[in-house]
Amino acid sequence: MRLRVLGTAAGGGLPQWNCACRGCSRARAAGPAVWRSQECLAVSASPDAWYLVNASPDVRTQILATPGLAPPGGTRHSPLRGVLLTDGELDHTAGLLALREGAALDLFAPAAVTAALTEDFPLRSLLAPYGAARWRPVAGELRLDDGRLRVTAIPVSDKRPRYAAGSTRPGPWVVAYRFDDAVTGAAAVYAPSLARWPEELDAALSGVGCVILDGTFWSEDEMERVTGHGPGARAMGHLPIGGVGGTLGRLRGRTGIRCLYTHLNNTNPAADPASRERSVLADALVEVASDGQDIRL
Ligand SMILES: [Zn+2]
């Protein structure tokens, strides 16, 4: 199985266009080599069948930067077969508008998210005239790539996107995914939005070679300290990395699993490789994913 990390920032990216906080200023000064595009992953068990997890507003640039996702010479046939949505957030779905050029993609989402993308942010009807996108529910185990790639959704929260904040639809609204290669036995978990740590997530980590987790915030009150306003990390749908109940405590001691953080907000000090927080992660043998990273399992 192969994981290509296409983007590693939370909504807005790093640097964010309208922000000059410490992290954004550092990134702007250092130049594009250290910039982070908005979170997106590509996964595949065989070279001609790739699936995206989430479609960020940066998806066109991300696909163009990834040789394995280019159409073979002389064809107009992408190896991209579909997109799995973890939730309905704008920074995870707006990229679908950039994938409308006739590709027959399978789009997988939890039922509440598909309903929100039909009624509240009507992507479904906007895209319908452009191509043959097939919307598929995410429930139980999915078998993709002719059965080779098994995908299991793990409900992780009922955090609604802001545009559907008043929705009374039952969840799950946010899921993580476990991927299993039915041929090699390789497995990985991808959880870029994690408002709580359910028991099902611990079970899903059993036997995986790699986990890529929500690294939006280092601390609970980070938004308020850096920007002067904003709710806490948990209220925004993200368990912080550090502090009491943070996800780093859940990762320590998991020998045999390669652990990485993604979806970093521009306020997160761990985005800076020279930060104290990054050495805390290094001591715990936990990595921060980078744009373009190639992980083979
Ligand atoms: Zn900033």
Describe the structure.
There is one protein chain. The protein has 9 helices and 14 strands. The protein has 297 residues and is α/β, with parallel strands linked by helices. The strands form 2 sheets. Strands 6-5-4-3-2-1-14 form a 7-stranded mixed β-sheet. It has a 7-stranded mixed β-sheet with strand order 7-8-9-10-11-12-13. Strand 7 (141-144) and strand 8 form a beta hairpin. The protein is globular, with a radius of gyration of 18 Å. The protein starts with a strand and ends with a strand. The model has no long low-confidence stretch (mean pLDDT 94). Zinc ion is lined by residues 16, 19, 21, 23-24, 266.
Q: What profile does the largest beta sheet have?
A: 7 strands, mixed
Distance between the termini: 5 Å
CATH architecture: 4-Layer Sandwich
Number of helical elements:
9
Using only C-alpha atoms, the radius of gyration works out to 18 Å
Overall structural class, as computed from helix and strand content, comes to alpha/beta
Q: Give the CATH class.
A: Alpha Beta
Bound molecules: zinc ion
CATH superfamily: Ribonuclease Z/Hydroxyacylglutathione hydrolase-like
In percent, how helical is the residue content? 10-25%
Strand composition percent: 15-25%
Strand order of the largest sheet: 6-5-4-3-2-1-14
Q: What average pLDDT do the residues reach?
A: 94
Domain Metallo-beta-lactamase: 50-254
InterPro entries: Metallo-B-lactamas, PQQ_synth_PqqB, RibonucZ/Hydroxyglut_hydro
Keywords: PQQ biosynthesis, Transport
Organism: Streptomyces blastmyceticus
